[in-house]
Amino acid sequence: MDNLGKRLFILFVGLFWASLLALRTLYTLFKVGPRKLLERRDPGNPPSELFNSVYGEHAYMNVGPIKIHYVISGPENAPLMLMVHGFPEIWFSWRNQIKEFQKDFRVVALDMRGFGDTDKPKGIQNYRIDCLVEDLRLFVDALGYKSCVVVSHDWGGAVSWAFAARHPQIVDRLVVMNIPPVPIWHQGFSSISKPVQFLHSWYIYSFQLPFLPELFMLLEDAISLNQAFQGPTSGLLLSKMTDDEVECYKYYFRKSGAMTSAINYYRANFYPPVAQHDLKYPMPLRIIWGCQDKFLTMDVLKDTLLAVPEATLTKIEKAGHFVQMDDPVNVNASIREFLASTNFEMSKK
């Protein structure tokens, strides 16, 4: 299939799924009425839980062309543990890991470019993997560290795979949750030879359309976030997230342009060209995988292990895509076991 054919195929699939979303929206319109459907609260004051001192201090740092917001805690002379979130998330997704590891690490959970209180540059090209990798490189350096332990999930994991491949001297240990490297991820959702993953990735195609994805995501005061974080997975209600916790995410996504910058991750790295990088990793690497993931199949995990055979694996059977929030106890235990088994020195800086 030539480039034009691929673009037309992408457009067709995106429009198909957008049509189904439009039909569902019409059904919801008749069910709840136009006022509730189009409800969008003003961001107002941030939820108090975002500023709970147990998570550390909020700070900002100019990194290259953007200003990054992050939350920092733990002993100043401890090694750095950098936590990198995914979509549709913010630093707050790591709340259970922050409390667990701040005793032993200088823990920094950042808002990625385009998310939370970090700058949101306009333009799809500003969300390519290359830009995001450079953000992490400059950020670690600006924090005053030569290297760190990286703990990552979803899009944060995709960026961290590339970051560790391109700058292995900066990454002492790599933990990635529920995301393969971008080349494998792209192969999984873009090939009809993998029909199950292709169907699981329907939303990625709809995200290629302008305007409509943001509209659908923000209907009923961003009820899509409730569905993502609190919805059922494979018939099991796995999430323990409260409405107040979901409000911490909604506060940021209610702001003008916030959903567009988040969705631009998918637009910038879909096609073409796909960000390529080496899949050989010299540092110890742990994959943690919630097996009830609604978005990524177990075949994607299998492909990742074949491509990165040196990685060790923890499968968490009763967790979904947001594994670090679904089962923080087992996630934290896996990270600790991984660090201990690879003889990581807690006193290292």
Automatic annotation (TrEMBL):
Q: What family, per the record? A: Belongs to the AB hydrolase superfamily. Epoxide hydrolase family.
Q: Name one Pfam family in it.
A: Abhydrolase_1
The AB hydrolase-1 domain extends over 79-328
* Gene encoding the protein: LOC101863448
What are this entry's molecular-function GO terms? hydrolase activity
Q: What protein does this entry describe?
A: Epoxide hydrolase 4
Question: Which key words are in the record?
Answer: Hydrolase
